[in-house]
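Changelog-adjacent note: as of this version, every example in the card shows the full chain rather than a window. The one below runs 186 residues end to end.
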Amino acid sequence: DLGLHETAHTRTLAWLLDPSKEHGFEDVLLRAFLREVFRLETSPHPTGVTVRSEYNPGESRDRIDIHVQGQWTGPRQNRALERWKVILEAKIRAGEGEAQLARYEKQADTVERHALVFLTTEGRRAETGSQDGKARWISLSFKELMALFQTCLPELEGKPGFEFLRLYMAGVLKDIYQLQGGENIG
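Full-length structure tokens:
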């Protein structure tokens, strides 16, 4: 009965995106995700990646659903390492807390390259970002994320976590979208 439990999803997604976990995917899902949220033409090759779920950044009571940070070789001529960060807030049948996303934006501003992702069932727009920051939040639906993961399946086949990923994707489509199978998720 965890199909609509937000924390179960965010912990699962953090595990899937973490290249160090035992699923055997290395950074395949993370690279696809980073390419999407940073609007990159090619997949980056991240290093020094840290993925946390239910991350408390300090003295506040806030918990960021998924906090990912690392570095990659930048596209600039000097090819220097660029630090990046992704903050993902997920909502399943819930609204945003008062000024919630505006508070989370402060955590992202600690590095130049950052993405703020608002993951919802409908792909709705964020409402509680800072006055000038509402457009900074990238709206993404669970269905769009599952379609992105689906593009990675051929590369992940045979890996230890492959069947888990397929079952998770099917569970998202069944529990959140009431799709029973055979429907085109794109």
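Structural remarks: The CA atoms of residues 53 and 159 lie 23 Å apart.
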